[in-house]
Specification:
Helices cover 20% and strands 27% of the residues. By secondary structure, it is an alpha/beta fold.
């Protein structure tokens, strides 16, 4: 009987795992950034051959502010796992996964473009969605909302500042 790649991976990672959560039979491991690249390589070796998605979460005002999230799939075992690395805003960088999965290239560029998180060792880290001269990172929670009036015939819709309630960030 073959072992589940999730079990193999959790045993291999050991002290790299800072937190472990299981929800609806899917495991999430929060990893230290120092061991992230080795953990991604171990995941690939354990059978997680598909990088299904790579994204980020802005947890502002919580610190550390950002989470980089990797969704991995082991198709032969029909298994999935989620790996996360939490990083501070002051040094928002993690190692690039492009050496493990070539498909991480554009996903990392998207996260860089929208959140400003750097991927050390990425072969071509530049904007992919926003114009080259764009200032800021639009998916950060502190990015200012802008309003551009749109003309409709028959009615005038409310602008976002009239709809979105104003509340201070939670501490």
């Amino acid at each position: 009987m073959t072992r589940d790649p999730v079990d193999i991976l959790t045993q291999q990672l050991g002290a790299t795992v800072l937190e472990q959560t299981r929800f609806r039979d899917e495991l999430t491991l929060v990893l230290s950034t120092e061991g992230l690249l080795a953990a991604l390589q171990a995941a690939r070796a354990a059978g997680f051959s598909l990088l299904t998605d790579l994204t980020a979460v802005d947890r502002y005002p919580v610190t550390p502010r950002f989470e980089v999230v990797y969704h991995l799939t082991a198709p032969d075992a029909r298994s999935r796992i989620r790996l996360k690395a939490r990083i501070e805003e002051t040094d928002a960088a993690v190692p690039s996964a492009t050496l493990v999965w070539a498909g991480a290239n554009w996903l990392e560029r998207e996260v860089f473009d929208l959140y400003g998180i750097r991927f050390d060792g990425h072969p071509d880290l530049k904007r992919i969605l926003m114009p080259d001269d764009w200032e800021g990172y639009p998916l950060r929670k502190d990015f200012p909302l802008t309003e551009e009036p749109v003309q409709f015939f028959g009615h005038t819709p409310k602008v976002p500042s009239e709809i979105i309630p104003k509340s201070p960030p939670k501490k």
